[in-house]
Amino acid sequence: MSKVNELFKTELKVINMGLKSFSNELKHQGVTVLQVDWRPPAGGNPKMIELLNRLKDRK
Amino acid sequence: MKSKCLIKKNSYYDSVTLMIITKEVESVQGVENAVVVMGTEHNKELLNNVGLLNDETSAASPNDLIIAVKLEDDSIFDSIVQKVDELLNKKRSEAGEDYYPPTLDSAVKHLPESNLVIISLPGQYAAAEAKKALLNDKHVLLFSDNVTIDQEKELKTIAVERGLLMMGPDCGTACINNVPLAFANVVKKGCIGIVGASGTGTQEIMVQIDKFGGGISQAIGTGGRDLKAEIGGLMMIQGIEALAADEETKVIVLVSKPPALEVAEKVLKVLKSTGKKAVVDFIGGDDKLVLDYGFIPAATLEEAAYKAVELCSKSVDEVLGLEVPEFTKATAEVEKAVKAEASKLAKGQKYLIGLYSGGTLCDEALKLFTKEMGDIYSNIPLKPELRLPENAEIYKNTAIDLGDDEYTVGRPHPMIDSYTRQQMILKLEKEQEAAILLLDVVLGYGSNEDPAGTLVEQIKSVKASFDARGQHLCVVAGICGTKGDPQDYSEQVRKLEAEGVVVLPSNAQAVRFAIKVLREVL
Amino acid sequence: MNWDKVKKPGYILPISIGSKAYEMLTKGSERAAVHSVFRNAINLQYEDDYLITAMPESFSASCQSVILSEADFNTLKSSITVFDGAQYTNSPMLLQKTRIIDLSIPDFEKFPAFKKLPVEVLKEAVKSYKEAFGSKSIASGLAPILGGSGNLYTEAADRGLQELKESLCSERLEGIKAALFGFIGLGPGLTPSGDDFIYGCLAALYYFWAYKDKDRSILEKTAAEIAVMANKKTTIISYNMLRSCIAGEFNESVRDFCISLLNSKYSEAFMEKVLRIGSSSGADIMTGMLFTFESLLDKEVKNEIKMPN
Question: What DSSP state is assigned to residue C82?
Answer without folding.
Answer: I
